[in-house]
Amino acid sequence: MSSILQCMECAQQYPIQRVIYTCESCGGLLDVNHDFGAIGKTLTRDLFDGRLGAFESPYNSGVWRYKELVLPGVDDRAVVSRMEGNTNLYELPRIAAYAGIDTIFLKHEGENPTGSFKDRGMTTGVTQAKALGMARVACASTGNTSASMASYAARAGMQGIIFLQNQQIALGKLAQGIAFGATCLQINADFDRNMELVQEVSERLGIYVLNSVNPFRLEGQKSIMFEALQQLRWRAPDWIVAPGGNLGNSSAFGKGLREMFEVGLIDRMPRLAIVQAEGANPLYRHFRAGFKDFKPVKAETIATAIKIGNPVNLQKAIRTLEWTSGLVEEVSDQQIMDAKAMIDGVGIGCEPASACSVAGAKKLVERGIIKRGDTVLGLLTGHVLKDPEATIGYHADQLDGISPKYRNRMLQADDDIDEIVRLLQ
After folding, report:
1. Per-residue confidence (pLDDT) for residue 392, from 0 to 100
2. What residues contact 165, with CB distance under 8 A and at least 6 apart?
3. 28 and 103 within one domain
């Protein structure tokens, strides 16, 4: 089965052996397109169900289980994997009641090896870097991308290089990049400027960029939808609700859902709702304006993983909205942190950006867009330990502008048994 790189704007094609991220003709974003052709009929539910519980690499991975849909041409022995994916899908009645619906499933991508969904895209991105013979890989990051890239680069024997802003980096994320041996550059610039810098520097020095402008990243991230729909026994939900930052997931989800529909794994397309923080909402504003005259924003939100004002995957996300009859919503930091407290409180936890899924679903129910009887699939992007400062700050009532409605107050006691008994009574 052959694969090519193709511009989503002008359809110009390039071989997948090229180191290229955008179209040389028009500057458009590139897709990795697979010619399913004759094998399309063999890509059945039974094929992928038969690989569940596999011990052999690469099919023990929740990404490479779907190899024919992800990166069919790569040799099994060349795959750089940490058994990513295989994350749980939780049905949570208490969260459903909070959102005002009957049924919600949360797909917890924080259960990946480095604690976020980024591992799914990094296994394919680093595998492609290895196939291209690259020795160095780089990314700009708000935290999760750098943690994942550093891990997979180390596994592949490559040097990882991280461009970080010099403030508001969650320590749980920064620590991983340092621990896995990456070269970390803290730069006096926000994420959007760092994104420009990493591309310019990488072009000069021959370094492979592993941000989601790299189309091979999105091929791995598609597998979130493949696995979630397989866990739902291939029954498409009414709605998929996901956080939106750089819009890589949103873009990957649309492509993955469309491919599943085309080969017959699902019989209908669900609707996608992309949820942004009010302080980092360029797609929401663009959506409300009818996709006319896009304007970046100066991003500011407690949800650092989506604190992005000029998303590189904008056009692919718009395409996803068209394919899925989707929409965009925004939620406040207050709504994000309250929803996070609810998710944490049912024992699975998440980073702040993840909670956009539940906060957004609740708001869309209140607006009458999602109906009580609709089945909703929400995405949790990262582990609760990714940003412990935000969690502690919420429950200690130390976050500016946020009043903790679901506070778990820390109790204080002297070394006095009677006092402790009184507190616990």
Report:
1. 96
2. 142, 186, 187, 188, 189, 190, 191, 194
3. no
Instruction: Name which of 141, 150, 152, 217 is nearest 183 in CA terms.
Output: 150
Residue 293 lies in a domain: yes
What confidence score (pLDDT) does residue 212 get?
A: 87
CATH number for 331: 3.40.50.1100
Residues of the chain with pLDDT under 50: none
Residue at 197 is within a domain? no
The Cβ of residue 133 has, within 10 Å, a number of other Cβ atoms equal to 9
Alpha-carbon span 62 to 121, nearest angstrom: 11
Specify whether the CB–CB gap between 76 and 350 falls below 8 A. no
Q: What is the pLDDT of residue 278?
A: 98
Determine the pLDDT at residue 362: 98
Looking at the structure of the chain, the number of domains it has is: 2
Indicate the residue type of 187: I
Distance CA 399, CA 403 (A): 8
Task: Please name the residues in contact with 216: beta carbons below 8 A apart, sequence gap of 6 or more.
Answer: 32, 71, 121, 124, 125, 127, 128
Q: Say what the pLDDT of residue 40 is.
A: 76
In this structure, are residues 163 and 197 in contact, taking their beta carbons and an 8 Å threshold? yes
pLDDT of residue 168: 65
Whether 235 and 309 map to the same domain: the answer is yes
* Beta strands per DSSP E along 251-321: 271-277
Asked if residue 94 is part of any domain, the answer here is yes
Nearest to 7 by CA among 19, 26, 18, 16: 26
Residue 386 lies in a domain: yes
Nearest to 378 by CA among 343, 334, 338, 337: 343
Nearest to 95 by CA among 300, 273, 347, 425: 347
State the sign of the Cα–Cα–Cα–Cα dihedral 29, 32, 38, 39.
Answer: negative
- Taking the C-alpha atoms of residue 39 and residue 354, their distance in angstroms, rounded to an integer, is 36
**CB atoms < 10 A from the CB of 411, how many?**
8
Q: What is the DSSP string of 192-227?
A: HHHHHHHHHHHHHHTPEE-STTSHHHHHHHTHHHHH
User: 260 with 327, same domain?
Assistant: yes
> Model's pTM, two decimal places?
0.95
Beta strands (DSSP E) in 111-237 are 136-141, 159-165, 183-187, 208-209
Q: At which residue do the structure tokens 């024919």 appear? A: 68
Q: Which domain holds residue 26?
A: 1-35
What confidence score (pLDDT) does residue 191 get?
A: 82
Residue 78 DSSP one-character state: G
